[in-house]
Design goal:
Length: 210
């Protein structure tokens, strides 16, 4: 069996082919043709379809406001006094995450009742969501709630920096936060925004916003 040695011209051809292939891949990654994006998303769906189901842990319990709750307690939204009573009943839990933004005051009595329940429980995590239709800059109280998150979700970068303009981040110009006296009582905060992918499906959660 004879082995053929590669000549310098052969090596040049292979190097050129490798460079061309790399450039094509880089271009496709940058251009993101719709058909390739859809193929990638369908492949991801297929992967999860064939993946074994993940058994949920018993350490997490969802306390949902459903039709039965509304029939027994009354129409939604409930008064914050009722929410305060529910939070007190959940005090034995390690963490209580409330997916409601209390961005407007209800009444002085109701707001104080909720604030006291959250403060005395010491395990309540509230949330906020970013807005892209804000007409004014976030207040100091709203920014204080964002900065209280255990995982840093927002990093302030100089808008004049060229590096900032090249970052492929989802941008918002405002935030809907809780009223200050309720927000101060929380043990932490999380963000509610979730962005659909190109086909309108929700598969991932953004960890960085601008």
């Amino acid at each position: 069996m004879r082995l053929k040695m590669f000549t310098p011209s052969d090596r040049t051809i292979f190097v050129l082919l490798g460079i061309v292939a790399s450039l094509i891949v880089i271009f496709l990654y940058w251009a993101k043709p719709r058909f390739l994006v859809e193929v990638d998303l369908k492949a991801l769906d297929a992967m999860f379809t064939f993946k074994k189901p993940v058994k949920p842990t018993k350490d997490v319990v969802i306390v949902a406001v459903d039709e039965r709750s509304v029939k027994e307690v009354g129409r939604w939204p409930w008064t914050r006094k009722k929410t305060a009573a529910l939070i007190r009943r959940l005090k034995p839990a390690r963490v209580v995450a409330v997916d409601i933004v209390y961005s407007e005051p209800e009444s002085k009595e109701a707001d104080i009742a909720l604030q006291k329940a959250i403060a005395e429980s010491g395990n309540v995590v509230l949330g906020y969501f970013f807005r892209d239709d804000a007409s004014e800059a976030p207040s100091a109280e709203a920014l204080a709630q964002i900065n209280k998150t255990r995982i840093t979700l927002v990093s302030s970068i100089d808008q004049q920096d060229a590096f900032d303009r090249q970052l492929p981040l989802v941008e918002f110009n405002g935030v809907e936060a809780n009223v200050a006296h309720i927000g101060k009582a929380a043990a932490g905060f999380g963000v509610f925004n979730i962005i659909p992918q190109e086909d309108g499906m929700y598969r991932v959660s953004n960890l960085v916003f601008a």
